[in-house]
Write a structure and sequence with these properties.
Two copies of one chain form a homodimer.
Chain A lengths: L3 H5 L21 H14 L12 E4 L4 E9 L5 E2 L2 E2 H14 L3 E13 L4 H18 L2 E10 L7 E11 L15 E4 L5 H11 L15 H9 L6 E4 L4 H13 L3 E4 L7 H10 L12 E5 L1 H14 L6 E6 L7 E4 L5 E3 L13
Parallel strand pairs in A: 5-6, 10-13
Antiparallel strand pairs in A: 2-7, 3-4, 5-7, 8-11, 8-12, 9-11, 10-12, 13-14
Helix pairs in contact in A: 3-4, 6-9
Chain lengths: 351, 351
């Protein structure tokens, strides 16, 4: 994690004059104009929005698109392995990827809290720019509001995204079939525990890095290798448990998974134990499950491993039964239990 | 403005069990699932998102689209003539309309404050549904976060929008030409003063209704009647003054306007005077300026008047000079002054 000092010299707004965001930066006048020019247009490629008008005009290479939105309220805004800016890019890009859509354009809307240090804002914006560059997406339109929050927590970011759909598959829970293999692209629970470690000041702070990262490359590799992808879902709020239960219920199929097959790192296990959490219910930001026909499972696994070898992708189960409890898990002793969706709030403000 | 009581019976979440939003409603578990099912999917046409997946898949009738985003933080959330929900639909639909794009799809992302009364949320969501219906747009994807705000102010909404571009004009500041007529579609300053009146508990409370409303019908009427529209801009934050200055500067042209031609209602004038505000710098949410060739001005005026007769559309000036001060205004005595962009915060949390 870079220290604020490294960024101070680069922040294009005079920190002497405006060390923090003020209400006037959201008022529609000259100060807001300056903020847009110096921070947002500077970072997000002003050339792509020549007239800086209310909307971006986009020429589409296809006539089937995916459209998604997500707000990011993670606290703290910097955590091991990422920050609210990179998360806001990865999260929305990943929602598009889960439809098999190639992420193309993002909007970025900021709700800034009065008093937010200007260099913090610049740091977050630079992180977004870098994440967008790595993901091959362009941030083409945006908005800024300033609110007089007394909490001083910083900022919320909404990103909406448009992706182009180049495949002809119907990727979604409705396409899940009995016999499908369930794969996960890597070890689960790291993002949530990385954020919690900083928030709670726990001793493992820093050793667990968020898994936040873009997923389209992995999805594209599956699709371009003719894996017949039935369903994809990223493991965000509620983790693997929520994702599997949602898919099973929507598909009207049961899912049987093997506890031993699910990759969870030792330090994540230990941290979860300390906090009384189940790693299967903890949010990830760079993990997804893929449902594919059994005949494609081995090939899909190989492809996922080639994307991120150290993440330890696995086949974790099969689609098989047709009634609730929707998701059952077999442990190492062979006994079965229902893997439930968490009822309430496990980890607030995790994404 | 309807009272909360009328809505209480209709709120689909049990108000006995959950009178307010809790952190658990944002946790990714069963309670959040219930909130989505009963409030958001119920209001926003679940049929349009059959698998309730991360993104909506959209089939486009054209391959040129407009894309925009806006967050809404208006306080109070209910005001004479509208609320944060209808504003969030109109505002984003209008940003699309200002590109001459036909609004088609919206996303809706909610940041709810813990403790928000559940029936207030339902009221806002119903207002969005109704506004979307009137505007002919579909809300096709969304997101919900809950934050532990201590302010209890309620909620923030982000809407992003996609519109289809059916014309071949280049609508924007770069197309503005010397000699263009500048039209406004109605009296200015009402939205800002309607919000302020409630916030400040002023004596004119209720008599000034927000002008919040959708603008695409007016734009479509101009385009379908072959008015050669050069530039359109809605008069939101910073009002008419900010809009004209932004366009003039971006176009590299001067604009001369006639103070007497600008429609401002008497009660808005009086309220502005009381608060020391200039109505030309106050936000509207249903007003825009159109730049058209002089030869089309009379026809454009007639079209705008036919859309909303009581709004009193006017030709307010001409594009003429080429250097700063960009916007000059002639008063009734014939004297000229620069019409400046407001420097800082005039009316915080107005949209």
């Amino acid at each position: 994690m870079k220290s604020p000092v490294e960024f101070a010299s680069a922040c294009p707004v005079s920190l002497k004059e405006y060390p923090t965001v003020t209400m006037a930066h959201g008022g529609g006048g000259k100060l807001m104009h300056d903020l847009l020019e110096k921070i947002f247009f500077a970072a997000f490629d002003a050339n792509s929005t020549p007239n800086r008008h209310d909307s971006a005009i986009l020429e589409l290479p296809v006539n089937r698109i995916a459209f998604t939105t997500d707000s990011y309220v993670v606290r703290p805004i910097f955590f091991p392995g990422g920050d609210i800016g990179s998360l806001a890019v990865h999260g929305t890009v990943n929602d598009l990827a889960m439809s098999g859509a190639r992420p193309a354009w993002l909007s970025a809307a900021f709700i800034l809290h009065e008093g937010l240090p200007m260099e913090t804002l610049w740091r977050v914006v630079c992180s977004m720019r870098e994440a967008a560059r790595r993901c091959g997406v362009r941030i083409v339109t945006g908005d800024t509001k300033v609110v007089d929050a007394t909490t001083g927590e910083g900022l919320y970011i909404n990103t909406s995204g448009i992706g182009v759909v180049e495949h002809s598959l119907q990727i979604g829970a409705a396409s899940v079939q009995s016999g499908d293999a369930v794969l996960v692209n890597g070890d689960v629970g790291r993002h949530g525990m990385a954020v919690m470690s900083v928030r709670e000041g726990l001793s493992f702070q820093g050793s667990i890095q968020s898994d936040s990262g873009p997923l389209f490359n992995a999805v594209e590799a599956l699709l371009s290798n003719q894996v017949e992808v039935h369903c994809l879902r990223d493991l965000t709020r509620g983790g693997l448990a929520s994702a599997l239960n949602e898919i099973a219920e929507a598909a009207g199929h049961g899912i049987a998974i093997e506890e031993e097959a699910i990759p969870v790192r030792g330090d994540v296990h230990a941290a979860c134990e300390m906090l009384g959490l189940d790693p299967l219910q903890v949010a990830c930001e760079g993990r997804f499950v893929a449902f594919v026909p059994e005949r494609d499972a081995a090939r899909a696994l190989e492809i996922l491993r080639s994307q991120e070898a150290e993440a330890n992708a696995k086949v974790i189960g099969r689609v098989d039964r047709r009634e609730p409890p929707w998701v059952v898990m077999k442990n190492s002793l062979g006994s079965l239990r229902a893997l439930d969706t968490p009822v309430g709030e496990l980890l607030p403000r995790i994404c």
